[in-house]
Amino acid sequence: MNITTVFPVIQGRWGFYSCDRATFTKLRRLNSLVHRARVAEAAWSRWNRKLPKNRFCKTTVYDAAGRRAGRKLKLDAEGQPIPIPEPRRPIARETIGFSEVADLIVFDYRNARRPHAAPLEVEPLKLSAAQIDEQLARYEQWGEERP
Fold first, then answer.
1. Dihedral angle at the C-alpha atoms of 91, 93, 94, 97, nearest 10 degrees?
2. Which of 114, 123, 145, 146 is exposed most, by the fewest CB atoms within 10 A?
3. What is the pTM of this model?
């Protein structure tokens, strides 16, 4: 049984698109926030992989000829090593299925920005308008939080 869903096809200057300009603007902002979330997740993962004894700032030591001769711990005014601060907690750690939703967002954004020659060639968006608004609100809230 083949069920076809009717979705709006928008005709633009250069072809046919899968969504209107307002939805595309939301998808563009959401794609940017997904990218920032993935970067934050990678930074937190790099920090978390280190053993606690290795989470300290270091400085490079040079010899008399100006060549690198090693590294040593940076010390604060009291002589204690300065710890590397924990990066911002990623949104992915608190959400089940983050990767799947993020992949759908990226797919929809790439699909929405590319025009098609005919209306039948246009692929519908994977996420509904309500899901896009919900994800945008979640990512905007995460983007406003500071560590």
1. 90
2. 146
3. 0.77
